[in-house]
Amino acid sequence: MAKKKKEKKGGKRMKKRELAELLVTFFRTRPETSFGLKQIFGSLNLTTHPLKMLCVDIIDEMLEENFLVETEKGHFQLNGRGQIMTGVFQRKSNGKNTFIPDDGGDPIAISDSNSAHAMNGDKVKIALSARRRRHDPEGQVLEILEHSDTPFVGTLKVSKNYAFLLTETNTLANDIFIPKDKLKGGKDGDKAVVRITEWPEDAKNPFGEVIDILGKAGENTTEMHAILAEYGLPYHYPQNVEAAAEKISAEITPEDYAEREDCRDVTTFTIDPKDAKDFDDALSIRQLKPGLWEVGVHIADVSHYVKEGSVIDKEAVKRATSVYLVDRTIPMLPERLCNFICSLRPDEEKLAYSVIFTMNEKAEVKDYRIRHTVIKSNRRFTYEEAQEIIETGKGEYKEEILELNKLAQILREKRMANGSINFDRCEVKFEIDESGKPLSVYFKESKEANKLIEEFMLLANRTVAEHIGKVPKNKKPKVFPYRIHDLPDPDKLENLSQFIARFGYKIRTGGTKTEVSKSINRLLNDIDGKKEQNLIETVSLRAMQKARYSIHNIGHYGLAFDYYTHFTSPIRRYPDLMVHRLLTRYLAGGRTAQADKYEELCEHSSAMEQTAAAAERASVKYKQVEFMGERIGNVYDGVISGVTEWGLYVEINENKCEGMVPMRDLGDDYYEFDEKNYCLIGRKRHQKFSLGDPVQIKVARANLEKKQLDFVLADDKLPIKK
Q1: Which of 109, 112, 100, 39 is nearest to 74 (CA)?
Q2: Which of 2, 262, 581, 661 has the fewest CB atoms in 10 Å of its CB?
Q3: How many helices (H) and strands (E) does the chain have?
Q4: Is the pLDDT of residue 131 over 70?
């Protein structure tokens, strides 16, 4: 009997074309699945090294040709996209425009010549261009489907026959031409808000019309309003909304007293920043018996006054949050509501929504109830006043404050032991005069009084979320907005681990959620008080995901809570108002709410929160530049806080103001950017500038229009350019 021919390991030798056909069939028959290389080798029986290498080469070519997409590192899937796509156009003043597909795929580069004059935020239809080898995908705008209504902010340059808006935005390289009849009374040097009306194909500049005149450039209110307008945030309250608020009665009716739990005789107080006017939370405490306390977290009952669908509610939805600029607050609600009717002011009877806890000396919650209440605050404390009582043991309501502080510290210890991450950052604040000019910088630290309030707010938020979200296994929870926080990005965590190793620190990048968060806490404890603290905290925060709102609960990683929501600030956050309304509905036995509607509101609230934070940062940056503008030529010690291909960012130690040392001012060497190791290295002299390095800088330039500070290295002999 003839011997069976032994089959060669890895099957017969294959030509490139044969293997390519196998791969095409493999992916086309599994269009929805993403595969790693090992899975592909195993499925196609590629066991020899040459075949595996050939397979990798073919996959590279298929990526180049857009036949495959890399869904994550080393994983590939059939490209389901066609050549025609719709999505959002993102314009950049440096010409590096991108297209973000609606299907959430990778961004696609669009050159200016292929942009059809689309503006930032426009909804467009594009065609994918033929892919060039070793180049990222590129496209061409075929049609602008929907224009973005985002206005532009800048300074008017008015001449005899025409005018331009000079913009400092990073989304438009061209100034905007404005016909004289579209100036709305604007004069040369005015700061204005302009809407683009058209951009003819053969015109170098877009055409626009003035929507609003903000005032003279350089004046404080003008510049703060300009920042708000730049981010699409309101800087005036609509008159019809103010008028509606004026009609609301502040009177508490007999029906209100009858329907609510009366907490007016329980010792109650507020603890807030010294400049606060909107007191939306208060604490009460009384001893029920030795070792047992009743602690009330009382929140302004905004939903009693602001009815869903009303003119005030519609404006609140649009705003979604109050905005805190460096020198002013732009409230979510009209002033009559946030600073008067709803604000839990001392010695005034107020309607509240309360979570009332029965707690023992170990801060264990033995029972709780959620009630609509009537309260009367006995005292308004500032954080500084409450802190003094905690530190000295003396002052009004000292027994109550000291007991609450003791309970809060136990709650905090438990939270940290469960893996809650302790990001305790100091905030930069400005002392400013009545005209808005910054006089000095100070740092706001979170002390025990701040943490006392924080712990009880966290407890109330978590309790409300658990009350609605925690249901038996066979039961579906009702629709509810949660505050969620996902696990850290693994790649960013790995980068953080490599970065801190340079300073001699370690963190865990694998293991359980609790193990990773505890190792981050150990790191934060280890760097406390060290010169690298601020820098490592900043890089650590970048490794974290952003918290957001959603009806789909995944827990809150940073707080180590399985259920968490926002209930405690309905005066300044719209999600809290949603939570109040749904809580009332569900406690009364109401049916579940519409999921799509609430998820959309959650997404909008998350987006507005990010926009408000960006505007707040821009206002701080403006004041930093204004403050340092009077200190040109001064020398300061600092630390390298950012490394990019265009230069170094340096943060000054004594005031945390950040500026840039541009590449051109780094001396007569050519520097290469090492992105992985956060450093610039000189080719000739091998001078190295790394993230976290201490440097001495001289303030060179301060550009208020661009909110930009330029530094030069103090030991560099380059002249300071004026």
Answers
A1: 39
A2: 2
A3: 17, 34
A4: no
Are 698 and 635 contacting, i.e. CB atoms less than 8 angstroms apart?
yes
Tens of pLDDT along 419-440?
Answer: 898 877 778 888 888 888 999 9
In whole angstroms, what is the distance from residue 548 CA to residue 570 CA?
A: 16
Token pair belonging to 439: 């006089």
Show which of 60, 78, 96 is a domain's final residue: 78
CA nearest to 241, candidates 334, 323, 366, 363: 334
pTM here is: 0.82
Q: At residue 201, what is the residue type? A: E
Query: Angle at the Cα of 39 (from 35 to 40), degrees rounded to 5?
Result: 80
Average pLDDT, the chain: 89
Which tokens hold the place of 702?
Answer: 């301060």
Alpha carbons 288 and 300: distance in angstroms, whole number:
25
The answer to whether residues 321 and 364 belong to one domain is yes
Q: In angstroms, how far is CA 100 from the centroid of its own chain?
A: 20
What distances in angstroms separate CA 434 from CA 275, 437, 475, one per listed residue? 14, 7, 58
| Cα angle: 654, vertex 656, 657; to 5 degrees | 110
Q: Which amino acid is at 516?
A: V
Do 381 and 270 contact (CB within 8 A), yes or no?
A: yes
Which is nearest to 661 in space by CA: 719, 718, 717, 713?
A: 713
> Which residues are registered as beta bridge partners of 143?
125
Measured distance CA(615)–CA(322) in Å, rounded: 11
| Residue with the two structure tokens 């056909």 | 21
Instruction: Indicate whether 297 and 353 sit together in one domain.
Output: yes
Number of domains in the chain: 5
Half-sphere exposure of 190 (CA within 13 A, CB side): 19
The answer to whether the CB of 19 falls within 8 A of the CB of 54 is yes
Q: How many C-beta atoms lie closer than 10 Å to residue 297's C-beta? A: 26
* pLDDT above 50 (res 722): no
Dist CA 351 CA 372 (whole Å):
8
Strand 365-376 and strand 261-262: pairing?
A: parallel
Query: What is the residue type of 55?
Result: C
Last residue within a domain, chosen from 146, 168, 194: 146
Q: What are phi and psi of 267, to 5 degrees?
A: -60, 120
